């Protein structure tokens, strides 16, 4: 454990109580949000280096949590919808269908249940791309359960079970589609600036992302699109929605740019 992490968990009692109060408030606010519930200029085609014989009609299936659903985006597209628009703007592509089965609040256990639904399975089987996010709510679950005594230990304890569930998710995705390109959009630390005392959660996010990346690499046709760094730098333009957890339209646009860059690097599917 880093010296910064040790320093964080040895804050003075008064500061620790203030942190607890603020953390409880954010957790309660997020619980309410989760339970209650830009594209390129038209006509301009993006030319890829190898756009010859690209597939005219492309299908994207998206699964996961609120990030894939697009919660927080004023335009209600999220990174998946914005990326869809970008792919459709590529020269030679006539249409891109996005089938989005993501549900806000989903943890890995919920996604595993969702993948058993016939509607989702049918949507996956013909997809050229599978986009997904998962894990953020698993982290939040650890926070909620330990909000009055938050230490590094419970995150370490949950990392192993998370890895096993993530591995099973990949296996189930492949069971229903053995050819699609799988693109996992990484976790990030939403508390970086709203709760500066929790900046060491960066280390947890880094470890969990590394676990996901390791499993994705085993697949051979799956990649992790790392977006954690997008939310690590302070700027005059906020990237988070009013709940200080989900990205806003600008945040999702940056995520989509990162994802589309990977799509272009790989090249679009051919006819």
Please characterize this protein's 3D structure.
This protein is of the alpha/beta class. It has helices spanning 3-8, 13-35, 66-69, 78-88, 108-114, 118-125, 136-145, 153-176, 201-219, 249-266; strands at residues 57-64, 95-100, 129-133, 181-185, 222-225. It is 48% helix and 10% strand. The chain has a 5-stranded parallel sheet, sandwiched between helices. Helix 9 links the parallel strand 4 and strand 5 (222-225). The protein is globular. Mean pLDDT is 85; it is low at 1-13 and 33-44.
Question: Which key features would you list for this structure?
Answer:
271 residues; alpha/beta; Rossmann fold; five-stranded parallel β-sheet; 10 helices; 48% helix; globular; disordered N terminus; phosphatidylcholine lysophospholipase activity; SGNH_hydro
Write the layout of secondary structure elements.
Layout: H1 3-8, H2 13-35, E1 57-64, H3 66-69, H4 78-88, E2 95-100, H5 108-114, H6 118-125, E3 129-133, H7 136-145, H8 153-176, E4 181-185, H9 201-219, E5 222-225, H10 249-266
Parallel strand pairs: 1-2, 1-3, 3-4, 4-5
Helix pairs in contact: 4-10, 5-8, 8-9
């Amino acid at each position: 454990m880093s010296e910064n992490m040790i320093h964080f968990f040895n804050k003075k009692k008064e500061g620790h109580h203030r942190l607890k109060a603020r953390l409880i408030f954010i957790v309660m606010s997020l619980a309410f949000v989760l339970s209650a519930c830009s594209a390129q200029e038209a006509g301009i085609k993006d030319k890829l280096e190898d756009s010859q014989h690209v597939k005219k009609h492309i299908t994207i299936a998206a699964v996961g949590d609120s990030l894939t659903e697009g919660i927080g985006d004023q335009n209600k597209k999220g990174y998946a919808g914005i990326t869809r628009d970008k792919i459709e703007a590529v020269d030679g592509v006539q249409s891109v269908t996005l089938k989005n089965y993501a549900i806000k609040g989903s943890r890995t256990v919920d996604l595993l249940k969702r993948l058993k639904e016939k509607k989702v399975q049918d949507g996956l089987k013909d997809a050229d791309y599978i986009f997904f996010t998962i894990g953020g709510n698993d982290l939040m679950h650890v926070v909620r359960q330990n909000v009055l005594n938050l230490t590094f230990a419970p995150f370490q304890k949950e990392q192993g079970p998370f890895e096993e569930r993530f591995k099973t998710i990949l296996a189930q995705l492949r069971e229903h589609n053995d050819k699609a390109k799988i693109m996992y959009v990484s976790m990030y630390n939403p508390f970086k600036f709203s709760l500066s005392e929790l900046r060491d959660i960066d280390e947890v996010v880094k470890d969990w992302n590394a676990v996901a990346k390791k499993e994705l690499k085993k697949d051979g046709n799956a990649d992790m699109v790392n977006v954690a760094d997008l939310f690590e730098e302070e700027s005059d333009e906020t990237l988070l929605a009013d709940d200080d957890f989900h990205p806003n339209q600008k945040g999702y646009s940056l995520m989509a740019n990162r994802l589309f860059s990977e799509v272009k690097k790989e090249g679009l599917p051919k006819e």
